[in-house]
Amino acid sequence: MYYFRYMLLYIGILANVILIFGGIGWSLLGYNNSFLNWAVESMTAKATAAGMKENIQGERIYVKRENKRPVRVNLYRAPEVNQPVIFVAHGGNFYDRDADNIDDFCVALAEKMNMSVISVSYTKVDVHVTSYPQDEIGDVIRYFADHAGIYDLDMQNYVMMGIEAGAYLSLIAGINMIQKTYFSKAYVFINPFLDYVPISFAQAGWHPEPLLLLFTNEDNAEKAEEYQDVLARADVYAKIHRRNDPEHPLRLFGESYKQEKEAYEEHLDWIKENLDRILR
Description:
Blueprint: H1 2-30, H2 33-51, E1 59-65, E2 68-76, E3 83-89, H3 103-113, E4 116-121, H4 131-146, H5 148-151, E5 153-163, H6 165-179, E6 186-190, H7 196-203, E7 211-215, H8 221-233, E8 238-242, H9 256-259, H10 261-279
Parallel strand pairs: 3-4, 3-5, 5-6, 6-7, 7-8
Antiparallel strand pairs: 1-2, 2-4
């Protein structure tokens, strides 16, 4: 009986020692950039492989960053050289999908707008906090601004586009870019994820413009109405197109563009009409 009690005591002491030193070790590793980079790489490797397609119609580029992981992007060139650029951040609830999922959409977007399209595969929130993908989007824009001549891009006239969660990230990235004197000519948000953040930016007078808002479902109708009202009261230049089409929702992932091309054409025509007014 005594032997059993002593054994439990020793096990408890040993477990506490392991927990204490393990916690200290893990905390120290948390400040080690090499360990953090290794951890992030290992966590994203599987997700990256799952999201990437073997064959895409764009040009895959890895944007290098100092002391940070490169950002994978897909470049879809405009039919003509030295045209404006649209930077697209895909949707997926912050933790799902990939730039490759909107491959067909980006091809159609480049052709319809006669603009080059750069689709950004940002890091998901299950790997990093939301400020990390915002920085990735900004770093991608700065990279192509510095290398516009190499890629035959008109970076004096670039546009930021975001889909669902990508719209949320693009909004905050766009505000950060303005503070660093990089100015997008327009912002196009498709079915944007809405919480207090976009509304607060508008109320504070920080919301970037001109803004094109495209709503194709009513999942967040109440928030969308509030967002529109706040934008109007803040005198933000915003053009809004709303169409609830349950049979042809604008999903923008996988092969949805090929399957529902006619439904997409209306939305692309609306975007083109308004961007032409802003850019030309």
